[in-house]
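Bit of a strange request maybe. I'm writing a small parser for structure token strings and I need a real example to test against, not something I typed by hand. Could someone generate the tokens for this chain?
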Amino acid sequence: MKKVQTYQEEIGGVISKLRLEKGMTQAELAEKAGTSQSAIHRIEKGCQNVSLEMIKRLSECLGGQILSVNDSSSQSFKIHGGKELSGEITINSSKNAAVALLCAALLNSGKTVLKHIARIEEVFRIIEVLESIGVKCTWQNRHRDLEIISPDELDIENMDIEAARRTRSVIMLMGPLLHKYKKFELPYAGGCSLGTRTVNPHLMGLSIFGLSVDAACKSGFYQAEVDQKILNDGQDKKIVLIERGDTVTENVLMAAALYRGKTTIVGASSNYMVQDLCFFLQKLGVKIEGVGTTTLTIYGKEKINEDVEYYPSEDPIEAMSFIAVALVTKSEIKICRAPIEFLEVELEVLKSMNAKIEKSEEYLSRNEKTRLVDLRIKKSELVAPLDKIHPMPFPGLNIDNLPFFSVIAATANGRTLIHDWVFENRAIYTTDLTKLNAKVELLDAHRVYVEGPTNWRAVELVAPPALRPAVVILVAMLAAPGTSILRNVYSINRGYQDFAARLRHLGADISPLTGI
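Reply from user aminoacidic:
Good idea to test on real output. This should exercise your parser:
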């Protein structure tokens, strides 16, 4: 039977054909389009989702139309919902760990190989940034592993600004770069639209290494300068984080890894991606005490030059996504390789809502550190919990998992209070569920009541610009009988690899709308 092409492969074939007709090499096309040769190679092979912005640029460079879309959509999904799903799914490696490890690879003068790394838009954007400053990134093992080799001197002046602005993760380059430059600049970070997310904790945390940043000069860049006397004083350093943020902790960890002395971080995040970064730095020879706690002590090295392979652990947020899919569509699904340490509170909350979930015995991830289980989600008649549902720093209910409880609560019998105290406006996105017939009462910018059960209704919507709220809408559409269309799903592709295809593997009727 002839293999059906994915829409990425169809787009890649059109681009390759037009390029060859023009007599251009991949490198020449990459230069004209303002991207890297490896990105063009991935696009033509059908191994990368392509934004409308990039398709437009490539169309202009090649003088031909690659695809036609209407004005309101970028990439879209058509969902025929209301179907019961079944089967099993294996959880991919962590998106948030991957972006931190990519940034941390700059600390290593040797060869870094990240095994089974997530192939998602957020990762592709960071790779484009790294390649633009001279880092060699090579996919191996059928595009499952990524080899990273940093040059002796980075070409930071030629950074891909467009790629950098499309990811908030670029802020994590500050920790590694302060050891390489006395002065540098980074473009303002992008990513999800979740209100004002201040960078001040990053700047305060890195200031103990002599970094000062002008973030208010209105140039569109963080202007950074490093006091070499402070950076090289060798004295013990201690930072008390006023915000137990994941990326803040990671930034300070990376700066401490190349600091010749002891650094203590009080109030550190102990979340899954921070632990993954610690395990990776330990493989590079950095001594770290207190992994998994809120106090980390790092004994840095003057230079890191190691050939290292590392497996990022599995993604607990992706696992929670599929738990939500099973419960909301009233399906029985087996979820393999779920990182139980980072899901225990979520499972207890679901147990209080009458969710039927079976767990296997524990086993270790390929990083030989993270505890995994297989979960079997059974068909369940859910009820609202007695208490409100709210996130807390690890080991509490994960902040990124909270949105899934809104769509789960809409399936449960009764009224649930959900309190999203972290972000200024993420709770507001919950009201999008009303368009699918859910009963949602917005109390303020942080609190909503959700009343179920819901008779889901098919609808056409533009996806919220934030990753998890967009997936929540998709999950509801899977449960809604009839045909729904979710437009502009780039926010989903930022954090999920082949999400639609994996849902089809479970029996979902979901397909991309590309207008090819």
